[in-house]
Design a protein that fits this description.
The structure holds 3 protein chains of 3 kinds. By secondary structure, chain A is mainly α. Chain A contains 13 helices and 2 strands. Classes of the chains: A mainly alpha, B mainly alpha, C alpha+beta. At the A-B interface, helix 1, helix 3, helix 4, helix 5 and helix 6 of A face helix 1, helix 4, helix 5, helix 6 and helix 8 of B.
């Protein structure tokens, strides 16, 4: 799509794009290029000497049990976050689309967690689930569940999933609600006249028509689980116990900042970059397809 | 409603109410904890109605932080957070709106190249270039400064795209009419394009305010000086050990203070928020 | 006010994509010219070249004594009314009209005087504080004209300004446009695809087809003597009948056909469709042996009420002849 009318100036457009390009180059391209460069380097323990080692950092990573484990943890984590985030918000949006009374109030009550920082979401849920003083822990103990996410990896994973899903529901909810409200009422009415009950109408009409929204949210939620949940992890489990919640992003941070392994961390960054690029391409494809509808 | 099924309506309300309560529950507990003494919190189970320490706890954190963890006053953290949450959206809009204007309304060599340069930044979130970006900031002497906290975050492909998309919907004839009226490109920008972009800017502002306020990894990397902590970072710094060792009453008071401004923005500017969210699609 | 000259004007977007193939016309000072043609013929492009919104690939356009090829629109001393009005949606009616004057640095008082005067002429006085979205289609149209009038330019350019109005309003605005031109006497170029607008508004019209000027002349002159089969087929409703005769094309307007006895018939048609319009009746049919030659006849209201064969005659004085290859008129 192009404009028919354009202005002509030899210098003005360059001046107008200059600030954004300057920031883009200094804070995006230069560091990204350096990440790629460092990923081929090995630095000694004191950071005094560096040496070009080619793909050795990558080879090392893929032999590293911890790194492969982190891949598995990330896959598990993002699958759980995406599934529960989408399922719960779809349920809530379907109900909110049904009710006439109080729809606005429900909407307001359901969207505010979007405003909460992931790190704070983590702190809130960590407090509820705190092994010794948590109120939910107390209830669970009453039911005979021995709850301590500090030492139990599965429970730690559950905690970060709950905190992450809690924060993401509002975003998904708004998109599902908008999607449901854009389905023509006449379609639902036609199905009702054909004798389809509410559940059948949902699965045969609303759900298929929502599939573009669902797919879009799936990609967005995976991106969210991959990157934006850094705060949740750092404020609660910090990747532990052991490697149980050490997702890729947290490992990049931990190895680079805490362990000061420049080459290894950079190689992880480069791999992450490829993952983002793949996800962006998928998302872009989807937007293109949506245009054709 | 297509047909009258009272039980289904009751069920719908029940699901929504349970959902709303579940979602609000952590917030309620947080608020209650922020009004109790530490001893009251440590009694298992913690009481679920507010105590009388509200003023004491909030005064303590606003003026002196926690006693065992970070001792930075939360009031100065709130100021830092506010500065960042305002500078990021305003700076982002300023640089995006002019670059989108150039890309839409001018034809010039390298136009598409620049466009793709901006687009590619979508693929390079902070998280994937942590260490090198930190080095750049350090080399530029921007550690522990507002500039370091904000400038790297104001370049954004999404805002540029949003403006570009919006500009494409402005009828060509409007620009032609302005040309015939004798308006220069910048005059057209100020008098016509900017006023028409008001709603889109309001929507973008809400989303980016929240984005700025909730920044975590970035300030974590480049602030070491307590006076530059943001509220979100401050909470993290107050957590010093396993659960019994923390001053949960003060942490929770800080959490409430950290959540309040963005939550208010979302609730009060709900219309813009929803518009911004759905239109930026990210 | 000023004369406008188009001298062998060409427009091409790429070497292959040519849209105007050399149009020449001298427009006198104060004349109202209609540029008429089907959609996509290049008529709007021609107007936009005069405005300076499109570059001129070859040839010259002069306004008054000045060749304006390389001048910006603002320096050409023209004002333009757009098809969709192009009102600034966030500005009041007053500001819409005043905007161009402010840019030109006129004093506040001068602007106020000019806007008030234009508002009086267009009966917009009560709406000056309103935003465009609070106006009806006809009122918006008037604001767009007001924006042109206040500038007091040498030339008005109208790009299908009435096509977004409903039929009734269009008739009314046509009348107002004529009155306005009588009052101001500004040289005007008016683009339309509507032949009624062209016939009623134009002092002279230029008929464009596929980037070429088919004919230039006063409306009735063009109607009476279409220079090409395109013009013959474009003007008139229904358009002129074109019937192959003796290796040429015989042109006869539907209103010049009249029913007659079979023995006097110069033309016999099989009737396909009868459209009684009240004032008269239009009969459509085809010439006996060849289905492809369609003929329309405008007959008195109750001339014919049944289908079948219809014998028609015409006066030799109303006949036109065209060359079937070139489409040009053959004057005898």
């Amino acid at each position: 799509m192009e404009k028919r009318v354009v202005f002509r100036s030899a210098w003005l457009p360059y001046l107008l794009v200059a600030p954004q390009l300057a920031i883009t180059v200094v804070f995006f391209f230069w560091p990204a290029a350096q990440a790629v460069w460092y990923s081929f380097q090995l630095q000694d323990a004191f950071g005094l000497k560096t040496q070009f080692v080619g793909l050795q950092n990558f080879a090392h990573l893929f032999r590293d049990h911890n790194y492969l484990e982190s891949f598995k943890v990330t896959a598990m984590f993002s699958a759980l976050v995406a599934f529960f985030g989408i399922a719960i918000s779809l349920l809530l949006a379907t109900m909110a689309d049904r009710v006439l009374r109080g729809a606005m109030a429900y909407k307001t009550l359901l969207i505010w967690p979007y405003a909460v920082a992931p790190a704070i979401a983590g702190v809130l849920w960590a407090f509820l689930f705190a092994p010794s003083i948590g109120i939910v822990t107390y209830v669970l103990k009453g039911w005979g569940v021995d709850w301590n996410w500090i030492i139990n990896g599965d429970q730690a994973m559950l905690l970060v999933v709950i905190a992450s899903v809690w924060k993401e529901i509002s975003y998904n909810f708004l998109f599902f609600l908008a999607g449901l409200q854009s389905i023509p009422k006449s379609l639902i009415e036609a199905a009702a006249i054909d004798g389809a009950g509410p559940a059948r109408r949902f699965w045969t009409i609303a759900f298929p028509l929502l599939s573009p929204t669902t797919f879009f949210l799936l990609v967005v939620n995976i991106v969210y689980a991959f990157f934006d949940t850094f705060g949740v992890i750092d404020a609660t489990t910090q990747g532990g116990p052991g490697q149980a919640t050490n997702i890729l992003v947290y490992k990049v941070y931990h190895d680079g900042v805490k362990a000061a392994d420049l080459g290894g961390s950079s190689a992880q960054s480069v791999i992450l970059m490829f993952i983002v690029i793949a996800l962006t391409v998928v998302q872009f494809r989807f937007i293109e397809r949506k245009v054709q509808y | 409603m297509v047909e009258n099924r009272p039980w289904l309506t009751v069920f719908s309300h029940a699901v929504l109410i349970i959902g709303a309560i579940t979602i609000a529950f952590p917030l309620y507990v947080t608020f209650v904890a922020s009004t109790l003494t530490l001893e009251q919190i440590m009694q298992v189970p913690m009481q679920l109605w507010p105590g009388d320490q509200l003023i004491a706890n909030y005064t303590q954190v606003l003026t002196g932080g926690s006693t065992t963890g970070s001792k930075a006053a939360v009031s100065s953290m709130l100021v830092n957070s506010l500065v960042i949450a305002l500078v990021i959206p305003l700076g982002k809009m300023a640089i995006s709106v002019i670059s989108a204007f150039a890309i839409v309304y001018f034809r010039f060599p390298l136009r598409m190249f620049f466009f793709w340069m901006i687009f590619v930044t979508l693929m390079l979130p902070v998280e994937v270039r942590i260490i090198p970006t930190f080095k750049v900031i350090a080399d530029l002497g921007m550690l522990n400064t507002y500039a370091g906290l904000t400038v790297p975050l104001i370049a954004s492909a999404t805002a540029t795209f949003l403006f570009r998309q919006f500009f494409m919907t402005i009828p060509d004839e409007l620009a032609e009419a302005a040309r015939v009226d004798g308006a220069s490109p910048m005059r057209f920008f100020w008098d016509i394009v900017l006023p028409l972009s008001k709603t889109i800017m309001a929507a973008l502002f809400v989303i980016q305010f929240i984005y700025g306020w909730n920044q975590y990894l970035w300030p974590l990397l480049i602030t070491t000086d307590e006076s530059m902590y943001t509220t979100v970072i401050g909470i993290k710094r107050m957590i010093v050990g396993s659960d019994a060792a923390n001053e949960w009453n003060l942490i929770m008071a800080t959490a409430i203070l950290a959540m309040l401004p963005p939550a208010l923005v979302v609730m009060l500017m709900q219309k813009w928020f929803v518009k911004g969210l759905v239109e930026t699609e990210k | 006010m000023a004369a406008v000259s188009l001298r062998d004007v060409h427009k091409s977007y790429t070497p292959e994509l040519k849209v105007i193939h050399g149009v020449s016309m001298e427009i006198e000072d104060g004349e109202f010219i209609v540029i008429l043609g089907p959609s996509g013929c290049g008529k709007s492009t021609l107007l936009r070249m005069v405005a300076g919104l499109e570059t001129i690939s070859a040839g010259e356009i002069a306004i008054g004594e000045r060749v304006v090829n390389d001048l910006e629109p603002k320096d050409r001393d023209i004002a333009m009314v757009f098809q969709n009005y192009a009102l600034y949606p966030h500005m009041s009616v007053y500001d819409n009209m005043a905007y161009g004057l402010r840019i030109r640095g006129l004093s506040r008082e001068e602007i106020s005087v000019r806007v008030k005067k234009a508002a009086d002429i267009l009966e917009l006085g009560d709406f000056l504080k309103r935003k465009p979205r609070a106006l009806s289609g006809g009122q918006r149209q008037r604001v767009a004209m007001g924006r042109a009038i206040v500038r007091e330019p040498q030339v008005f350019l109208f790009d299908e300004p009435l096509s977004n109005l409903d039929a009734k309003l269009r008739v009314q605005m046509r009348g107002e446009l004529q009155a306005l031109h009588r009052r101001l006497g500004t040289t005007s170029l008016f683009v339309t695809h509507d032949q009624v607008e062209a016939m009623t508004l134009a002092q002279r019209m230029i008929v464009i087809n596929a980037g070429r000027a088919e004919q230039i002349g006063a409306p009735l002159e063009v109607y009476a003597k279409p220079a090409t089969t395109f013009v013959a087929g474009f003007l008139g409703s229904p358009p002129m009948n074109l019937i192959p005769r003796e290796g040429k094309l015989l042109g006869i307007r539907p209103e010049h056909l009249e029913p007659c006895a079979a023995s006097d018939a110069l033309l016999t048609i099989d009737v396909d469709l009868i459209e009684p319009l009240g004032a008269d009746t239009v009969v459509y049919g085809h010439v006996g042996d060849s289905e492809s030659v369609r003929v329309a006849a405008r007959l008195p209201a109750h001339a014919l009420t049944r289908e079948g064969k219809l014998a028609l005659r015409y006066d030799a004085a109303n006949v036109h002849w065209y060359d079937p290859q070139s489409g040009r008129r053959i004057d005898t």
